[in-house]
Write a structure and sequence with these properties.
The complex is a heterodimer.
Chain A lengths: L1 H17 L15 E6 L14 H10 L4 E3 L5 E3 L13 E5 L5 E8 L14 H12 L9 H4 L1 E8 L2 E6 L16 H10 L4 H4 L1 H4 L11 E7 L3 E6 L12 E6 L3 H10 L4 E2 L7 H11 L3 E16 L4 H4 L1 H9 L3 H9 L28 H10 L4 E3 L2 E3 L7 E5 L5 H15 L4 E4 L4 H9 L7 E7 L7 H4 L22 H12 L3 H18 L2 E14 L2 E2 L18 E2 L4
Parallel strand pairs in A: 1-10, 1-11, 15-16, 15-17
Antiparallel strand pairs in A: 2-3, 4-5, 5-7, 6-7, 8-9, 9-10, 12-17, 12-18, 13-14, 19-20
Helix pairs in contact in A: 3-5, 11-13, 17-18
Chain B lengths: L1 H28 L4 H8 L5 H10 L6 H13 L5 E2 L4 E2 H36 L4 H15 L2 H15 L16 H35 L2 H8 L4 H30 L2 H7 L4 H10 L3 H29 L7
Antiparallel strand pairs in B: 1-2
Helix pairs in contact in B: 1-13, 5-6, 5-8, 5-10, 6-8, 7-8, 7-11, 8-10, 9-10, 10-13, 11-12, 12-13
Classes of the chains: A alpha+beta, B mainly alpha.
Chain lengths: 562, 317
């Protein structure tokens, strides 16, 4: 018995120790024609219009298509429509609304061969039905603004319709609604709209072939664990290469790594997989076994300054904090430089990004000089005090337990300490941090967390003065710093409605300059997606935007030698 | 005896009722509601949407009203829909409860099969080499963090040796019974190794205590065989505290093993209840926790009845 125990113990420890050195056996899962993808999240509903969730978008990329989407080059493109409607090609035209305001009528022509998996054609009636579901107040559709903005949908024939929109916005060509199969769902919806979200086939019978019209259809699902997809015989585009795609949910990233190494999964989705620091560590050990593709995306880590705080009200102090932050060193040390430093709230991949804005490179001398100018010139034991003896003390919060954020926080605390800031860390569990502290602007100093951007997405909710949460507006809005600048408000309003591309870009440029000058928020890093792919996989293009790579799954293939 | 059982069942119902309110109230006291969580995931949610959704899910009602609505519906057998899974609570809970009972039940049986003989052997040979080895193994099992042990097992058996699947449940795959059973081996092993140490220590201490009693000396003096002294006299008495521990463990059979389930991707109750609480899924969390409470109460009642069987001096009136 003693020998067996010793053998077991030795085997366990040797296994741990030699993991880095030994070459694991060849992948067994994902045999010819099967691709098994590891993801860390399972959608709470499969209904395309209810709730917004990345895991759902990722799966729907296999089984359906939006009418328009931003492609991997961040260009708006048609996926189900035949041509993007514009004022120039006559498919969009300005209209006068009943209240005298100006709206726009946009006409789309659907792909004539788009067909649901049960053989029924995808029609304009399906689009109209989707709109009816979305605008109904009881259906539980979360973000219904896009539905409410549509005043009417006129169906011309099976494959063309005109949507009347209640305002003219620069992005009028984009049609963000999903398409629901009216032939299956209309009866359930009309029977009881309030119960529709509980009775929809998307959740009662998600493998029903009539719910899908993409390159693949879902053939089997185990809620919370896995979903299996096979080619959809009614798909009208390029035939997909894989005979079967399996999505497996492994929430723990250490287990996800072990699954990858054991061959239980072939790849880890960048959209829903490991963090960059985990991927970088894995690449150091197994760089020759997999392809590691890093794509900076839409999510950026930043620090909100509470502008009610007298210290932070002074722009010089905010600028000093920026100059004293060595974001490049943080990016290099923690993420191997894979997550680039952020200098604005608009991604450099976004067409409207402006490079010509004030930047704050690491310059501690400049930071100290700004603090001197701001009256913080009494330096005692490394901490600055003002003329009245008040210390330059700030509270710094983030989500407790988020290792990456806590590491960034400690690095910044140390860098700021070097120029005389006394920064006290007070972290909270995510539920408290987001549910109470941020939602009610209870953070006294600085808060580090992430925001989601989108191509050409106007940052109204975070920068407009009418989005400052307060008791009067029931704590709605996400302008947590409390930033109010009338010029910024004008710019945000203007960008939304300006149709002239050149003029709109000027507004975008000024908005980004003003943001960088006022600095109500300190952008830190653009989070990157870490796609870990088998060497034999070809054609996968990470997008970095809100449309996951699966929207182009028909381009994925296995290399001849794979 | 019958009146004792009826009295205990009535007490259990009262405890369940109080627990249901406490769980509901505690979840209500957590910062943020489901709509706040949605806002974090979807910045496009307008104030108008937020108000509409709060009304739709009844979140604009006071906590007591929401609890009362839930209670009256539950008493009529309607446990509502899970907000996180968009399915009736029962459809989510039943398969997961079975998965957990299978996982933890097998682990419990395996633990007892190891712990009882190991504990008895250690107790009968205190300070011997064998006792030291058993103690060392038991302490190792207690000390090794379950998440680390689980990862280590995956590395050894899945990555290095390639014998067993690294996770999942084998569902939805075209495999036979044995293939599916292979998915159970690592999670059961991980759970067993992390819990068996405590049970060994408990059996050992309890047996050593029993072996010091006068009646054991008397039994030996009567010339009874060593086996009979150990099994019929010492073990029977030593089992009473062990049964207490096992009864408390029964609650875990339903509430699950969060870490093991998460790492092995095993769809069990622990992860479900955790996700439900964090996602403010009142219906799911409540029913999950209520089942766990009910089973713990039932197991303790069974433990009380087992005491009477093990020790005839114990009588309930």
């Amino acid at each position: 018995m003693r020998q067996r125990l010793a053998a077991l113990t030795t085997a366990l420890f040797m296994a741990a120790g030699t993991l880095a050195a030994e070459e694991p056996p060849a992948a067994q899962a994902g045999g010819a024609g099967t691709l098994t993808i590891g993801i860390t999240q399972f959608p709470s509903t499969f209904h395309p219009a209810i709730d917004s969730m990345l895991a759902k978008s990722y799966m729907h990329g296999l089984t359906r298509r939006p009418i328009t989407a931003y492609d991997p080059d961040w260009e708006l493109t048609c996926l189900v429509c035949q041509e993007l409607p514009t004022l120039e090609n006559g498919m969009a035209e300005k209209i006068e609304l009943e209240d005298g305001d100006e709206g726009i009528a946009v006409t789309y022509k659907l792909h004539p061969e788009a067909t649901w998996g049960d053989g029924e054609p995808v029609t304009a009636e399906d689009v109209k039905f989707t709109w009816e579901v979305g605008k109904h107040p009881d259906t539980g559709v979360a973000a219904a603004e896009a539905y409410r903005r549509i005043l009417d949908i006129e169906v011309h024939d099976d494959h063309s319709f005109t949507a009347q929109i209640d305002r003219i916005t620069f992005d009028y060509s984009a049609f963000g609604l999903p398409i629901l199969p009216a032939h299956l769902e209309r009866e359930i919806f009309e029977d009881d709209p309030a119960q529709y979200r509980n009775r929809t086939l998307f959740d009662r019978d998600p493998a029903n072939s009539g719910l899908h019209f993409g390159p693949y259809r879902m053939v089997d699902v185990t809620t919370g664990a896995r979903a299996t997809f096979e080619p959809n015989p009614t798909w009208y585009g390029e035939p997909p290469a894989f005979d079967r795609i399996v999505l497996r949910v492994v929430e723990n990233t250490a287990a996800l790594e072990a699954n990858l190494l054991s061959g239980a999964i072939d790849m880890v989705a960048g959209e829903l997989g490991m963090t960059v620091d985990q991927a970088v560590a894995l690449e150091r050990r197994y760089g020759e076994r997999f392809d590691f593709v890093y794509r900076p995306g839409l999510i950026y880590e930043h620090i909100d300054f509470n502008l009610d705080n007298p210290i932070l009200q002074d722009r010089k102090v905010r600028h000093a904090l920026a100059y004293a932050s060595n974001r490049d060193v943080i990016s290099e040390a923690l993420f191997d430089g894979r997550q680039p430093a952020a200098h604005s709230n608009i991604s450099p991949l976004d067409a409207v990004h402006n490079d010509d804005i004030p930047r704050y490179p690491y310059d501690p001398e400049k930071a100290e000089s700004l603090l001197e100018d701001a009256g913080w010139n009494d330096l005692r034991n490394g901490i600055r005090y003002d003329g009245e003896g008040n210390p330059l003390r700030l509270t710094f919060q983030t989500t407790a337990g988020d290792r990456t954020r806590e590491l960034m926080q400690q690095a910044l605390q140390s860098q700021w300490r070097d120029v005389g800031f006394d920064v006290r860390i007070r972290n909270e569990p995510p539920r408290v941090f987001f549910g109470q502290t941020m939602a009610q602007r209870n953070f006294p100093g600085m808060a580090l967390y992430a925001w989601l951007s989108a191509p050409e997405s106007v940052p109204r909710s975070t920068l407009h003065s009418d989005q400052i949460p307060s008791e009067e507006n029931s704590w709605t809005g996400q302008n947590y710093p409390g930033y109010a600048n009338p010029r910024m408000d004008d710019l945000l309003d203007g960008i939304e409605t300006e149709l002239d591309e050149e003029r709109r870009q000027e507004l975008w440029d000024e908005m980004q300059r003003l943001y960088a000058e006022d600095l109500p928020v300190l952008p830190l890093l653009w989070r990157a997606q870490a796609h870990i792919l088998p060497k034999w996989l070809t054609g996968l293009q990470p997008t970095g935007n809100q449309f996951p790579s699966t929207f182009w799954v028909e381009e994925w293939d296995r290399a001849p030698s794979g | 005896m019958l009146s004792f059982i009826i009295r205990r069942l009535l007490q259990s119902l009262a405890v369940l009722f109080i627990m249901s309110f406490l769980i509901y109230a505690l979840m209500g006291l957590m910062p943020g509601d489901p709509i706040d969580l949605m806002i974090q995931a979807d910045p496009d949610l307008t104030p108008e949407d937020q108000a509409r959704l709060r009304a739709l899910y009844g979140l604009d009602q006071p906590l007591t009203t929401r609890y009362w609505n839930w209670l009256t519906a539950a008493l009529q057998g309607d446990f509502g829909f899970s907000r996180l899974f968009a399915q009736p609570v029962g459809e989510i809970l039943w398969p997961r409860m079975w998965n957990t009972v299978l996982l933890l039940g097998l682990s419990l049986i395996l633990s007892l099969m190891i712990a009882l003989p190991a504990g008895i052997i250690a107790a009968t040979r205190p300070q011997s080499t064998l006792d030291n080895v058993i103690n060392l193994s038991a302490f190792a099992g207690i000390s090794i963090p379950p998440f680390w042990l689980a990862i280590l097992l995956i590395i050894l058996f899945s990555v290095t040796l390639g014998w067993l699947p690294a996770g999942g449940m084998g569902m939805g795959e075209d495999t036979g019974l044995w293939e599916q059973a292979r998915f159970l081996i690592l999670p059961v092993l991980a759970l067993t190794l992390s819990r068996v140490g405590g049970t060994i220590r408990f059996v050992r201490a309890s047996m050593m205590e029993a072996l010091r009693q006068d009646y054991i000396r008397t039994a030996r003096a009567k010339g009874l065989s060593r086996r009979r002294v150990l099994v019929a006299h010492a073990l029977r008495n030593a089992l009473i505290p062990v049964v207490t521990i096992l009864a408390l463990d029964m609650g875990m059979l339903v509430s699950g093993a969060l870490i093991t389930e998460t790492i092995f991707g095993w769809l069990g109750m622990g992860k479900t209840i955790y996700d439900a609480i964090m996602g403010n899924d009142y219906n799911l969390a409540l029913m999950g926790l209520m089942f766990a409470t009910a089973l713990t109460l039932l197991a303790n009642l069974l433990a009380d009845l087992t005491y009477a069987w093990l020790d005839p001096r114990i009588k309930y009136g």
